[in-house]
Amino acid sequence: MHYVTDLHLHSKYSRAVSPQMTLSVMANYARQKGIDLLTAADFTHPVWFKEIQSQLEEAEEGMYQLKDDNHKKLVRFMLSTEISSIYKQGEKLRRIHNLIFVPSFATAEKFTKALVARGCNLNADGRPIVGITSEALLELLLSTYY
């Protein structure tokens, strides 16, 4: 199956993003633009995570849809987040934006808890800034799967 996608969106909980950036608004604009699959981004933000859990239901493995969506054209969502890793490596300052996709709410929750355990502040922004290398972030993510 082929999907027209937008895999880099942000929620209303990210800096400089419209407060109207909700799942239903995203889905309506996706339909107008012919987009089939979006990200329910910023899952690391605790308030947004509760919102997406309450508004989405699994449509198929790793893909979700709005509950009670009566439109003929259903828009699917994947769970994702962007994490800004800022750290010093040798004498250089590294600023890397990592896009992370997870298959389930359980994995998202486990990953988020692991970030909090490492001292990351996830309440301030939907795009958290962490002092973790991209390699360590990948290892942390992979540990949530096994």
Polypeptide structure, described:
- With 146 residues, the protein is an alpha/beta fold.
- The protein has one domain (5-143).
- Helix content is 30%, strand content 29%.
- Strands 1, 2, 5, 6 and 7 form a five-stranded mixed β-sheet that branches. The chain has a two-stranded antiparallel sheet with strand order 3-4.
- Strand 3 (56-60) and strand 4 (63-66) form a beta hairpin.
Could you tell me the radius of gyration in angstroms?
A: 16 Å
**Helix/strand/pairing category:** alpha/beta
Main β-sheet: number of strands, strand sense, barrel status? 5 strands, mixed
In the predicted model, the low-confidence regions spanning at least 5 consecutive residues are none
Give me the number of helical elements. 4
Number of domains: 1
State the end-to-end distance: 29 Å
Fraction of residues in helix: 25-40%
How big a fraction of the residues is strand? 25-35%
SSE ordering: EHEHEEEEHEH
What coarse outline follows from CA principal-axis ratios?
A: globular
Describe the structure concisely for a colleague.
This protein has about 150 residues and is of the alpha/beta class. It has helices at about 25-35, 45-55, 105-115, 135-145, and strands spanning about 5, 35-40, 55-60, 65, 75-90, 90-100, 130.
SSE topology sketch:
Elements: E1 5-6, H1 23-33, E2 37-40, H2 46-55, E3 56-60, E4 63-66, E5 76-89, E6 92-102, H3 105-117, E7 129-130, H4 134-143
Parallel strand pairs: 1-2, 2-5, 5-7
Antiparallel strand pairs: 3-4, 5-6
List its traits.
two-stranded antiparallel sheet; five-stranded mixed beta sheet; 7 strands; globular; alpha/beta; 146 residues
